[in-house]
Amino acid sequence: MQRREAMELLAGEFIRWQTPYGRLDPKVCPFVDTSTLVSSMNFHAPTFLAIALYKAAARLGRPEWKAAADRYVVGYLACLREPQSEPDFYTQTWTAHMDEKHGPDADRTAWALHILTWPFIYGMALAAYRHFRVHNPGELALESKASALYEWLQFYRWDEGSYYRNGYGLPKAGIVDCGNSDDNCHIGRGLIAYHAVTRRADVLRDAAGLARYYLTDCVPGTYQGVWNPREGTWVIGPTAADGIEHLTATKSSEASWGFTNTGAIEFLTELAAVTTDEALRAEIAAKCAAAMRWSFDACQFEDGAIGLGGRDDKWLGMTAGAVMSFLRTREAGFLSPEIEAASAPRAQRAAAWLLEHTDPDSVAAGGYVPVTGRTELRPPDNGAWMLGLTLEGLTMLDDLGGGD
Prior knowledge:
Blueprint (H helix, E strand, L loop, with lengths): L2 H14 L29 H15 L2 H17 L9 H14 L5 H5 L6 H17 L7 H11 L27 H18 L2 H15 L11 E2 L4 E2 L23 H17 L3 H20 L16 E2 H16 L5 H21 L2 H5 L3 E2 L11 H15 L9
Antiparallel strand pairs: 1-2, 3-4
Helix pairs in contact: 1-2, 1-15, 2-3, 2-6, 2-15, 3-6, 6-7, 6-8, 8-9, 8-10, 9-10, 9-11, 10-11, 10-12, 11-12, 12-13, 12-15
């Protein structure tokens, strides 16, 4: 498929899936698993769809795509709530709905406290807000909500190395907080995006503090860091939790995946561009260059596709993420001539596979192409998230020399 055609396919679906007020419509979008209430599980995807639509609209001159992106961002920001310490009407209503749909769950009340207040969705929201401001210059009406999101993030600050809590753990396994690297990288994406809008020194300090989590070796059972020096990338989390997202019987401290790779490289390369701490920048450069190589060394199939946590199953979103990670590390100046020369052909093969396989059938499948079946499209909204990354990646193929 030609790149323009692929972009139009994806953008058209993102708009078709949207309600007039900016939510993914459960009657239309196949990647929404809550039909009557918005849950955190429907909040993985919208900001990725928005960011991709903004970039595609700018690339192809499609104002209707920009308008849809605005709706996604405004709808997302409107839903987010202040952190709760006790169940309120919303959490009680959500819990009752989920109990009726899935059966009672003793841990659900604790989870319900964080519905629409998870720190990762605050970060995702701030990441998209930056693009809203760029594409709506002078519009300050949403700044009050963005400022509140940053303040609400501080509810999750703690003195451990992860800097922010994920906000959830596994009490039955004695895990106070999962410390998942993917969750926290979205906080980082949000912080560095909000700093780009405001230039607030406190926001930059928090971004640099969080970055240390990604630069420090993981010691399982602690929160000191999530870097795996043996693999040259980040672990999913520092705990023995398993069943994370769709992975089963896999300890988070023994596995890595492209969700973190893509988001952490975005966060850290942007932090490196604005920090005055040269030692911090050097550490970021080394880690990002290694993690980018892991995407290809460990995860790329012969045909160019990229798997999620290795050569497991092929994912459009992970393939786009690997291409973007190459471009971001190269643009940041983190790659030696030797690494760039070795990685560029791999990125080209990934881009070619991405173009060849972005079609109506793959979009309907959430960009998931089973090979081993070790990964799954679970929770379903990850499919929309991955397709958002796919469109964003397609907008950046110019930098690889790809044509329309």
